[in-house]
């Protein structure tokens, strides 16, 4: 199959995109800024260091639903700028096509991360994985320091009937459809806390949410039996809460 390849600017860098991935949105830059400004200081504190360069082990970072790779690749480059030297990063997606686009972008923008980091370990791995499948997570024993995600969060009926024609015909529904009320990914990962039980989160998670979802998600997490602690939200330039932050209790 042929794909028309386009280019999109995200956080000042050029990313290849085509019909296999969501087109990176400028809104998602809030997730990067929040991670750098609010979460990095917490990571430092948790690890008892004052600069990322002092970490004596690779920081383990995972993105769920990596798509074009714009978030994970940007984050790795920005973290490197502020001192991060050792990293093991995992970009996972259900879509094989998306992973091909992410790999292309990583080869263009961070080629050295795609090389072997010794002992057969790659610093950055892209892994095809459906989060709702139980048994096929291959790094079960690895604890994650940071998980980021901009999951599909649009209610199914909106994807099918109300979305802008341009979006619903040109972007993969798999990247948009968040289930009946749009909360399938949040309920599973945060409220049921699959982030801890399956992906071994021992640290922080930063997730993008739809402009009207943060409040409900806050309530759902606080009222759940999840061991995740709700940390707060971050707003976009229009004043909408578009990012939710949580951490595992120490
Ligand atoms: C909203 S897009 C985000 C893409 C990219 N991270 C960004 O911010 O531009 C969500 C991504 O989740 C992936 N996805 C959807 N369902 C999934 C599942 N069950 N398991 C893993 N990834 C999934 C989609 O293929 C898509 O790439």
Automatic annotation (TrEMBL):
Keywords: Methyltransferase, Restriction system, S-adenosyl-L-methionine, Transferase. Gene3D superfamilies: Vaccinia Virus protein VP39. The keyword ATP-binding does not apply. Residues 60-163 form the DNA methylase adenine-specific domain. It comes from the Eukaryota. One of its GO terms (biological process) is methylation. Pfam families: N6_Mtase. One of its GO terms (molecular function) is N-methyltransferase activity. InterPro entries: DNA_methylase_A-5 (IPR003356), DNA_methylase_N6_adenine_CS (IPR002052), HemK-like (IPR004556), N5-glutamine_MTase (IPR050320), SAM-dependent_MTases_sf (IPR029063). This is Predicted protein. The lineage of its organism: Eukaryota, Discoba, Heterolobosea, Tetramitia, Eutetramitia.
